[in-house]
Amino acid sequence: MPELAEVEYMRKRWNPGLGQRIEGVRLHAKAGVFRGTKPRLIARYLTGATFIASEAAAKQMLFRASGGVWLGLHLGMTGELSVQPAGYLPRKADHLVLEQSGQALIFSDFRMFGRVQFAVGPEAPVWWTEIAPAVMSKHFTREAVATFLRRRAKSPIKAVLLMQERFPGVGNWMADEILWRAGVHPRRPAGSLTPVEVAALHRQTRWVADHALKTIGETFADPPPSWLFRHRWKDGGRCPKSGEGLVREEIGGRTTCWSPGRQQLP
DNA sequence: TCCTATGTTGTATG
DNA sequence: ACATACAACATAGG
């Protein structure tokens, strides 16, 4: 489920816990989402700490608690955050539960492609600070995109858009939406795009991120029917701009949807 | 039973 | 060292 805007929405779901003490921690220490961490240490440090602030970047979230405690969450493919009433009994996929007075903050992920990260210290940990600058930031320039596409010249542009080191937060549906709006065929080699196409790709990346945050990121509401998003999920969909049938094929290992009239190979 | 799924990551190959 | 391609991870639902 989660790309840039879905992640932002999920981050805010824990807002009711801000300013509240974490009275207890329940976790599934052997769950794959804790790979590379020491779950018992996480439980020990979080217990008694106060949840202070959170932010999202790319497809990740960072939760800060008192005492220099930093909790990172990645939702993988099926991760979710929720708030449940106090006394809630964790279910199978509820791998991390932060108990507060009157409520519990839940991280669940049945497929366990998500992950938990953890650090203690005065500064945000490197696994957070090394995330690429957001596509809405001033660092995401047309020139940076052009340089990156040149370095990945032979890969299909669809696969390149999924690379988090340059397009943080872009996932499968966003990549298709961006290419559709830019009028670029997903199978085009990244190095073959003209300067005009690179400019369009850069502009549409920002546009899609901005508008997804305003719809999905705020209320989890679907974007309007004018978006490819609303038509791309199953066979038989029609292009909201041209009305022609959409095509779905696997590109770069991911199901890809495009509008053949608007997005052509040379 | 078989296929698909809004994501990464390790590994093999060039 | 770098770029590229793809299997693997784990689970549910159609």
* Biggest sheet statistics: 4 strands, antiparallel
CATH superfamily of the largest domain: MutM-like, N-terminal
Strand content: 15-25%
Instruction: Let me know the average pLDDT.
Output: 97
Distance between the termini: 33 Å
Instruction: Provide the succession of SSEs.
Output: HEHEEEEEEEHHHHHEE
> CATH topology of the largest domain, what is it called?
N-terminal domain of MutM-like DNA repair proteins
Question: Can you tell me the number of structural domains?
Answer: 2
* Count of helical regions: 7
Q: Which CATH class of the largest domain applies here? A: Alpha Beta
CATH architecture of the largest domain: Alpha-Beta Barrel
- Give me the side-by-side strand order of the main sheet: 1-6-7-5
Shape: elongated
| Count of distinct strands | 10
Q: What value does the Rg take, in angstroms?
A: 20 Å
Structural class: alpha+beta
Poorly predicted ranges: none
Helix content percent band: 25-40%
Task: Considering the chains and any ligands shown, give keywords for the structure.
4-stranded antiparallel β-sheet; 266 residues; elongated; 7 helices; single chain; 10 strands; N-terminal domain of MutM-like DNA repair proteins; DNA-binding; Helicase, Ruva Protein, domain 3; alpha+beta; 23% strand
Describe the structure.
- The chain is α+β, with helices and mostly antiparallel strands and 266 residues long.
- It has 2 domains: 126 residues, N-terminal domain of MutM-like DNA repair proteins, CATH 3.20.190; 117 residues, Orthogonal Bundle (Helicase, Ruva Protein, domain 3), CATH 1.10.8.50.
- Helices cover 27% and strands 23% of the residues.
- The protein contains 7 helices and 10 strands.
- The strands form 3 sheets. It has a 4-stranded antiparallel β-sheet, with helices on one face. Strands 2-3-4-8 form a 4-stranded antiparallel β-sheet, with helices on one face. A two-stranded antiparallel sheet has the order 9-10.
- Helix 1 packs parallel to helix 7 and helix 6 packs across helix 7.
- It starts with a helix and ends in an 8-residue tail after the last strand.
